[in-house]
């Protein structure tokens, strides 16, 4: 029993080091690429010193590397199995009566625990660092960074307020969605009856209201009126509108339940937030699945040959699986299927597929 525990810890340590190495290599490459891009922006817009550029790049790094953890688990697991096979340790374990499931178990446990750490600790850190990077980028360069910038030409957005629902359109959003330009608002009462139309040059979100400056208000059977400031009620708040109108993937795991409730109260579609929440919940299982997928292609003996081809097939298969997950996510975001179906069905199918292959390899 003691020797089995020792072997379990040894294999788990090998998995952890291999996964950490793959993750560090990918993170280093991403840092260098993003650092070069930041230097290009500094040369174009000016106003930034080298330490500030390096700090902004470092703050942006967690947001980029978070999505790479799944790939790092796959590559690290394949590397671990291949190295164990090359050193004949895998053959010795099999000769000692160990099945594939016994030396897969340490890797599955390591991946599952890394998934829990990713959604409860790393994801919130990533979201906070991303927000700080956006603030520094805007402060240094006087413009929003590319990977958080609001898109121009916002679509019509429905929201709710104390006086009833309203529909907002703006030509552009700045300051993370807190300030809108060239605003058009259609206001309705609680019975969805049209009340008024508001046109304004600017609108800024304050607690419980969009404050429109230099706005024309047009009501049925009344002449247009010009107001220096005009308030339109909303359930959105300044500390949440950036999340409700911004990138779903920039939200923290702990913030998502509140954002989902806020989006539903404000009349926004909540499907993307539900899908993202399910994706984060499924991450430990997804990472554990990567170990199984690695096991399907890298548990052969070196003497049997062809292991290099199997490894290449495994990496390509993992990439295809990532594409399938992304397609399924987009289907869920579009509201064509329930969010839990869009997220969990690909994982369950891949888990059944990998388990079947390993069982066939073990028992024929």
Number of individual domains: 2
Q: Which class best fits the helix and strand makeup?
A: alpha+beta
- What portion of residues is helical? 55-70%
% residues in beta strands = 5-15%
Question: Biggest sheet: strands side by side, in what order?
Answer: 1-2-3-4-5-6
End-to-end Cα distance, whole Å, is 28 Å
Secondary-structure element sequence?
A: HHHHHEEEEEEHHHHH
- The number of distinct helices, counting runs of at least 4 residues, comes to 10
Which stretches are poorly predicted, pLDDT < 50 over at least 5 residues? 144-155
Mean pLDDT: 80
What Rg is obtained from the alpha carbons, in whole angstroms? 26 Å
DSSP strand count: 6
Oligomer: single chain
What does this structure look like?
The protein is of the alpha+beta class and 364 residues long. It has 2 domains: 2-144 and 272-363, no CATH class; 157-246, SH3 type barrels, CATH 2.30.30. A 6-stranded antiparallel sheet has the order 1-2-3-4-5-6, with no helix packed on it. 62% of the residues lie in helices and 15% in strands. Residues 144-155 have low confidence and may be disordered. A hairpin with a 4-residue loop joins strand 2 (166-174) and strand 3 (179-188). The chain has helices spanning 2-45, 50-65, 69-86, 89-95, 100-141, 238-245, 256-265, 271-298, 307-333, 339-363, and strands at 157-159, 166-174, 179-188, 194-206, 209-218, 225-233. The radius of gyration is 26 Å and the shape is elongated. The protein contains 10 helices and 6 strands, in the order αααααββββββααααα.
């Amino acid at each position: 029993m003691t020797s089995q525990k020792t072997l379990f810890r040894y294999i788990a340590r090998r998995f952890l080091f291999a996964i950490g190495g793959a993750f560090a290599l990918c993170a280093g490459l991403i840092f260098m690429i993003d650092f070069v891009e930041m230097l290009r922006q500094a040369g174009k817009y000016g106003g930034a010193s080298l330490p500030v550029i390096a700090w902004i790049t470092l703050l942006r790094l967690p947001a980029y590397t978070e999505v790479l953890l799944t790939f790092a688990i796959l590559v690290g697991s394949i590397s671990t199995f291949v190295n164990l096979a090359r050193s004949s340790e895998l053959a010795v374990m099999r000769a000692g009566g160990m099945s594939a499931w016994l030396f897969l178990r340490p890797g599955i446990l390591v991946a599952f625990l890394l998934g829990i750490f990713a959604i409860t600790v790393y994801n919130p850190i990533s979201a906070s660092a991303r927000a700080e990077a956006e603030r520094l980028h805007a402060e240094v360069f006087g413009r929003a960074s590319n990977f958080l910038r609001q898109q121009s030409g916002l679509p019509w957005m429905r929201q709710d307020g104390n006086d009833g629902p309203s529909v907002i359109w703006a030509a552009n959003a700045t300051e993370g969605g807190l300030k809108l330009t060239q605003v058009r608002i259609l206001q309705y009462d609680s019975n969805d009856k049209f009340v008024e139309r508001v046109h304004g040059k600017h609108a800024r979100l304050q607690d419980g209201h969009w404050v429109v400056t230099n706005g024309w208000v047009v009501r049925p059977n009344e002449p247009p009126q010009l107001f220096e400031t005009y308030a339109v009620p909303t359930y959105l708040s300044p500390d949440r509108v950036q999340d409700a109108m911004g990138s779903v993937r920039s939200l923290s795991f702990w913030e998502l339940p509140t954002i989902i409730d806020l989006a539903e109260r404000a009349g926004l579609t909540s499907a993307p937030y539900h899908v993202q929440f399910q994706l984060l919940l499924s991450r430990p299982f997804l990472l554990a699945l990567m170990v199984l997928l690695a096991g399907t292609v890298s548990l052969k003996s070196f003497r049997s040959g062809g292991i290099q081809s199997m490894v290449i097939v495994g990496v390509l298969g993992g990439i295809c699986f990532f594409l399938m997950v992304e397609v399924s996510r987009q289907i869920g975001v579009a509201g064509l299927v329930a969010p839990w179906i869009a997220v969990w069905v690909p994982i369950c199918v891949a888990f059944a597929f990998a388990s079947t292959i390993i069982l066939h390899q073990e028992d024929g």
